[in-house]
Design a protein that fits this description.
- The protein folds into five domains: 87 residues; 95 residues, Immunoglobulin-like (Sandwich); 83 residues; 81 residues, Immunoglobulins (Immunoglobulin-like, Sandwich); 50 residues, no CATH class.
- By secondary structure, the chain is mostly beta strands.
- The longest helix has 26 residues.
- 7% of the residues lie in helices and 44% in strands.
C-alpha cells in the first residue's frame, strides 16, 4: 500500500515543477511598452518639451517590468533597477537646452529594448527678410533673394518656401535657417505682384495644431507692355484709302507702380515706293497723350503697320494689317425661277469685287440673314411673286463698299386635278367627252382606262365597248 502512495507523490511533484518553470516564460513573451508624453503606450515613445526650462522626464509603463537599465542619452550615468511596477515612475532631469536625446530602456531580464526620443525645443517662429542691397521689384525674367530669419529653430524643424508664382514649393530642413534663397521669376507667371510665404514646422507647432507662417509682400514682378494698335478700319473700298492708327498699348502693372516713361516707335512701311520705310522714331507717350496718325495708302492692296512699345522692362511689338479692296458688284441667279408652293429655289451668289459679307432677303417675310459668299437655298410655302434682294458689302462705314441686286421669282399655287365627263353609263358601247376642271395646272396626263392616254388639256372623246 505504501508503494503506490509514493508513486502518487512523485507525480504531483513533477506537475508542480513544470508549472513553475512555464509561468515566467508566459509573462515575458511580449516586450513591454512605455507611456509617451501624452500618456499613450508606445514601442517608440516621444516626449516633447516646448518651454525653455529644465525638463523632468517620468518613465512609466502600463506593464509590470522586471530588472531594467536606462541610458538617458545625455551622457549622464546609466540608471538600473530591479523592477518597475505600474504606476511607478523613474524620473530624470534634462538641463534646459534645444536638443534631442535618444533614450534607451532595456528590460535586462528579457533583453527587450525600447528606444524613445526626448525633444527639447520651442515653438519655431518663421520669418523672412530681404538681404542688404536686395530688391523687391524686378522685371521678369529675373531673380530675387530672401533670407530665412526664423527663430527658435531646432533640428526637428522643416521649412517650406512658396514663392507665389505657381512654381513647386521648396522644402528644407533646419539647416536652412540663416540661408539666402534665390528664386527666378519667369515671364507671365505673376500678375504684377505676389507674396512669398515661409512655413516653419517642428514637434512643438505640431502639438499646437498648426505651423507658423511668415509672408513677405508685396513682391513686384513686372513685365513688358502688351503693345496694341487700334485702326479706324481694317478694310476700305477703293478709292477710300485713309486709315487712322492709335496706340492702345496695355501698359503693364501701372496701378502697382510700374509708372516708368513709355516710348513709341511707328513703322508704316515703304508702300509709296520711296525706297525707305516711313518711320516715326521714338517719342514719349501717355504722358503726353498723342492723337495717333492718319495714313493714306496708295491704292488696292494689303498694308502692315508696326508699333514698338518700350517700358522699364523692355520692348514689345504689335503689327496691324489693313486692306484696300475694289468696290463689290452684287450678282445673283435663281434656279429655277418658277416653282410651286412648298418647293425650294437655289440662289447662286455671283458677286464680284472685295465683298466679304452678304445679306439676303427672300421677300416672303422671313427677314434678313447674313452669310458668307456661298449659295443659298430657300423654301417658299406660299404662292406669289417675290423680290429677292442680295446686298454684297465690306464691313465698313463707307457707302461705296456695298452693292445691291434684286431678282423676282414666281411661286405658283400647288395644282389640284379635276375633270367632268359627259356620260358614265351606257349599253354595250359608250362614248364619253372629258373636260378639264383642274386648278392651277400647267400640264396634263390623262389615262382613260381603255388603253388610251393624252397630254392635252381637253382630250378627244373616248369610246368604250
Amino acid at each position: 500500500m505504501k508503494k503506490p502512495a509514493n508513486n502518487m507523490q512523485s507525480v504531483i511533484y513533477v506537475f508542480l515543477f513544470v508549472s513553475v518553470i512555464f509561468m515566467p516564460v508566459s509573462h515575458y513573451a511580449q516586450c513591454p511598452q512605455l507611456n509617451d508624453g501624452n500618456g499613450n503606450p508606445s514601442n517608440n515613445p516621444y516626449w516633447v518639451h516646448c518651454i525653455n526650462s529644465n525638463y523632468t522626464l517620468n518613465i512609466s509603463s502600463p506593464d509590470n517590468i522586471g530588472a531594467w537599465s536606462i541610458d538617458w542619452g545625455d551622457s549622464s550615468p546609466v540608471d538600473t533597477g530591479s523592477s518597475l511596477i505600474s504606476p511607478a515612475t523613474i524620473s530624470h532631469i534634462y538641463i534646459a537646452t534645444v536638443d534631442t536625446f535618444v533614450v534607451t530602456f532595456t528590460e535586462t531580464s528579457t533583453g527587450c529594448i525600447i528606444t524613445g526620443v526626448v525633444v527639447m525645443e520651442e515653438y519655431v517662429n518663421s520669418s523672412i527678410q530681404i538681404p542688404v542691397g536686395g530688391v523687391t521689384q524686378i522685371c521678369a525674367p529675373d531673380s530675387m533673394a530672401f533670407i530665412n530669419s526664423s527663430t527658435n529653430v531646432s533640428s526637428t524643424t522643416t521649412f517650406t518656401w512658396d514663392f507665389g508664382d505657381g512654381s513647386p514649393v521648396e522644402i528644407y530642413d533646419y539647416t536652412n535657417v540663416g540661408q539666402t534663397i534665390s528664386h527666378a521669376y519667369q515671364k507671365y507667371t505673376v500678375n504684377c505682384q505676389t507674396q512669398v510665404t515661409l512655413t516653419a514646422d517642428n514637434y512643438c507647432t505640431q502639438q499646437a495644431g498648426a505651423p507658423t507662417i511668415a509672408t513677405f509682400n508685396p513682391i513686384m514682378v513686372w513685365d513688358t507692355d502688351d503693345a496694341q494698335i487700334n485702326p479706324s478700319a481694317t478694310v476700305l473700298c477703293d478709292p477710300d484709302s485713309l486709315f487712322h492708327f492709335d496706340n492702345t498699348t496695355n501698359k503693364n502693372c501701372i496701378p502697382q507702380g510700374n509708372t516708368s516713361q513709355r516710348y513709341e516707335n511707328w513703322n508704316f512701311g515703304d508702300y509709296w515706293g520711296l525706297g525707305y520705310d516711313s518711320i516715326i522714331n521714338w517719342l514719349p507717350f501717355d504722358p503726353p497723350t498723342r492723337p495717333g496718325y492718319d495714313i493714306a495708302f496708295p491704292g488696292i492692296g494689303t498694308y502692315t503697320t508696326m508699333l514698338i512699345d518700350s517700358n522699364l522692362c523692355g520692348q514689345d511689338t504689335a503689327y496691324q494689317t489693313v486692306n484696300i479692296v475694289g468696290p463689290p458688284t452684287a450678282g445673283l441667279a435663281a434656279t429655277p425661277d418658277t416653282i410651286c408652293a412648298g418647293e425650294s429655289i437655289t440662289f447662286t451668289n455671283l458677286s464680284t469685287g472685295g465683298a466679304t459679307s452678304f445679306d439676303w432677303n427672300f421677300g416672303d417675310g422671313t427677314g434678313w440673314s447674313s452669310t458668307g459668299s456661298g449659295s443659298q437655298t430657300h423654301t417658299y410655302n406660299i404662292s406669289g411673286d417675290f423680290t429677292v434682294t442680295l446686298v454684297a458689302h465690306v464691313p465698313t462705314n463707307s457707302a461705296i463698299c456695298a452693292d445691291t441686286v434684286t431678282i423676282i421669282v414666281s411661286v405658283l399655287p400647288s395644282p389640284q386635278s379635276g375633270f367632268t365627263l359627259s356620260d358614265s353609263v351606257g349599253c354595250d358601247t359608250l362614248t364619253v367627252a372629258y373636260a378639264d376642271a383642274s386648278f392651277s395646272a400647267i400640264a396634263w396626263n390623262w389615262d382613260f382606262g381603255n388603253g388610251n392616254t393624252s397630254t392635252l388639256q381637253n382630250p378627244p372623246s373616248q369610246f368604250y365597248s
